[in-house]
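Please go through this protein, sequence plus structure tokens, and consider how the sequence yields the tokens. Keep your notes short.
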Amino acid sequence: MQIIIPLENQVRTIIRSGYIMAKRVSVDAYQLSGDTFNMCDVTAAQVLLLPDDVSVSEGEALTNELQMQALPMETFLAPSAEESLSETLGLLLRSAVADGKITDAELLRVAPSLEGRQWQSGIPVTVGDVYAFGAFLWKCVQAHTTQGDWSPDLTPALWHKVEIVKEDEQRVWSTGIEYAVGDVVAYPDASSAKYECLQAHTAQEGWQPPNVPALWKALV
């Protein structure tokens, strides 16, 4: 790799190194290191990082063509141990959720470690990913890229709500919940009429128990 230090629109210095590692020290500054150098508080405007196959020499003009061949600093970012651990744990959690090896109760117990994983639009998600939205955790059941009008509470085909039902607690029907045959819910609130699930499904808007007798039977 070639580290180019420009001055007055010319190539002032060229440092050649077998490798480059970058560590972010602030929003726009990095620590750069290699087998022949170490630089602190360097910004992208202060150096150009060029591959070895780019021909360049000291004193030549810093042309637009030369600058376009530079590699972004982020290419050489080395993740910290904390970032690597977080990514590894995230992959393990995703795998466990996707394989059904972790229950909703267990997910809620580890909820504090998921702090910061807030659902937002424009991010790619895959089966087993867990995000917070509103007051609940949601697990992805179909890979997709999130969109503003595809929030978890409106897309039961994409997300399932993480919930725990206590034996002495009356379940109230809600969208985004997987219901099994025999489940009993109240609708529209805990003191209202009770319904028994006749067919396993994931609830969605418009499928309220009174509206879909093929899925729910009113209990007397």
